[in-house]
Write a structure and sequence with these properties.
Blueprint: H1 3-10, H2 15-24, H3 26-29, H4 36-46, H5 49-63, H6 66-76, H7 91-97, H8 101-109, H9 124-130, H10 134-149
Length: about 150
């Protein structure tokens, strides 16, 4: 056995712990000059602005803040009909999930479709039925009655 290797084993340090210290823990021992804020700016810069805005709008839908949604739509001049996230979910998917009837009506007036499918082939109508969003299902039922009567 090599003399250096023998002294390592006699001192209680294994080769696995040396590998861990040299390879895995080195970034923790020698941090970069960048702060956490700078690192988070890098990740937000990589993500397209529309996905970040989609998350903001989703939060407003969850809380039922229709005025803020209208404000963002006017400020950023976005078409709510074609506004999707990375999974192709529309804002109407989010409104149907959280049973937001007023926001659902607003999005339907803006031209959003209840039959637009996301990446998992789920449309807002299916999500409303799955989450038992009674108000959203009632809106779609009355829309169908009006459409088929005419």
């Amino acid at each position: 056995m090599h003399p250096n290797r023998a002294t390592l084993f006699h001192s209680g340090i294994s080769l696995g712990s040396i590998f861990y210290l040299l390879v895995i823990a080195t970034p923790c021992i020698y941090p970069s000059n960048r702060t956490k804020q700078e690192m988070s700016k890098d990740t937000s810069e990589r993500r397209p602005w529309r996905f970040v805005l989609f998350r903001k709008l989703s939060k407003q839908i969850k809380t039922g803040n229709l005025e803020k949604i209208k404000y963002y739509a006017d400020k950023y001049e976005i078409d709510l009909n074609s506004f999707e996230n990375e999974n192709r979910r529309s804002l109407l998917h989010v409104a149907a999930k959280y049973n937001q009837a007023t926001i659902t009506l607003y999005l339907l007036e803006q031209g959003c479709s209840m039959y637009h499918q996301d990446a998992k082939n789920m449309c807002p109508l299916y999500i409303a039925a799955w989450k038992r969003s009674q108000d959203v299902l009632e809106i779609e039922r009355t829309r169908r009655q009006i459409f088929f009567k005419e």
